[in-house]
Structure formats: C-alpha cells, structure tokens
Amino acid sequence: MLNNRTAIVSPNSRLGKNVTIGDFTIVYDNVVLGDDVRVESHCILGYPTPLASGKPLVIGNAAHIRSHSIFYEGSKFGNGLRTGHHVTVRENVDAGTGLQLGTLTDLQGDTKLGDYVRTHSNVHLGKRTNIGNFVWLFPYTVLTNDPHPPSNLLIGVTVEDYAVIATMSCVLPGVRIGARSLVGAHSLVTKDVEPDTVVVGVPAKRLCTTSEIKMKDGTGEPAYPWMRHFQGVYPENVLQEWRAKFGRR
Fold first, then answer.
1. Residue 64 has what pLDDT?
2. Closest alpha carbon to 135 in 85, 87, 89, 193
3. Closest by CA position to 198, among listed 217, 223, 175
4. What's phi and psi for 86, nearest 5 deg?
5. Distance of CA 219 to CAs 6, 210, 216, 232, 243, Å?
6. Can you give the pTM of this predicted structure?
7. Which domains does the chain possess?
8. What is the mean pLDDT of residues 3-31?
9. How many Å apart are CA 111 and CA 77, to the nearest integer?
10. How many other β-carbons are positioned within 10 Å of the β-carbon of residue 4?
11. Residues 45, 25 contacting (CB under 8 angstroms)
12. Could you tell me if 177 and 195 are in contact, meaning their C-beta atoms sit under 8 angstroms apart?
C-alpha cells in the first residue's frame, strides 16, 4: 500500500486495496480510505479536531489527492474525489460522488456538496454552505456566511442544481442561487437568484433568462442549459439521463 519510506501512516487507519501514499504524507488514526486511492506527497489526512466529534475522515474509492493538501477528520467523500494542490478541507464536510476541488480551494467545514460539483482554483466555501448537484464554481468564487462580521452568527449560502458561478464572484450570507442559473463574472450577489436566470454586476441584477444567452460558436443556439452541449466529463449514465431530459445539441 505504501510506495515510500517517508510517509507516516497510523496503524489504526483503515486503507483499502491498491492505495498509494506519497512521500512525507501523514495519515492519522481516524481515517478510512477506499480502494484505488492515490495520495501524493506532503499531504495530511485526518488532522485531529474536537469539532469532528470523533467522526472519521472517510474518502471513497478511486480518489486522487494532490500534493500539500490537508483534510481534517470528520468529513465524508463519495467515490471519485479529485483535488488540485494545496487544498484545505475542514471538519464535517459531506460530499457526494465525483467532487473536484481546484488548487487552493478552501472548504471551511459544516458544508454539504452534492454529486459532481466542480470548483476551480482559489474557491472559498464558508461554513454551512449547501451546494446541490452538478454545480460549477469558477476561480476566486467566495461564498460567505457571516452577515455581521465578525460575529458568531453563520448563515450559509445555498446553490441549487446545475447553477454556475463565474470567476471572482462573491455571494453574501443566506443567499440562494436558483437551479440552472448563471452568476456573471465579478458579481456581488446580495439577494436570491431565481432559477434559469442570469445576474451580473455589483450588486448583481437580473440580466435575462439563461435561455437568451447564445453560443459564440457561430450557431446562435442557446448556451443554456449547458448540459445540452457540455458532456465530456461525466459518466455515460448521467449523459443518457441528460439527453432524455434536456436534449442534445
């Protein structure tokens, strides 16, 4: 299971079949890794914290965790987790299948993520964030949670299924981003976004429905729902469901 002599792996951790652990990585006691997990160098898995209430760090099958990432104990991830480098994940994160976390992504804990969520680099998710399925969060997106900083009142952001938040956008505490909506780049979202709606600006305001956005490939066809034309990174069973539900370009 180990491919080096410099990693420190607790004998109390539970590792599945065909697990590889990189140089100088530390795996603490309270860790469960599935089969075919690859952990690169200088990672920390299961960092102890009383905020986890004794729950283990559980990482499903076929995960790939890149170098210098740290995962606290108390979080659970479905199969197919992928990370960039220098990712930080605090306690009590509950994530579904196929999560991808870009380099320098920061999950502050007490967060729920559905299946096939994608974050690009430098994304920050505050505590009590709730994210649905097939959500895209582009670079430098920030989901906040403190309405009166600094305070002990935390109200998380909710992002519904298939929503997209473009680069360098910030969403304020308690805001709900509706299903299949689009938040334009550099937006400050201060109030709820209706489903199938595009919002842009500071503060973000409604621009149009997503169906009014056209592809810039010369076809003039609607760009949304994006599931009609962007399908290369999902398993076939998901694509078949989308073809039946949304059609295909």
1. 98
2. 193
3. 223
4. 60, 40
5. 55, 17, 7, 20, 20
6. 0.94
7. 8-210 (2.160.10.10), 214-249 (no CATH)
8. 93
9. 12
10. 12
11. yes
12. no
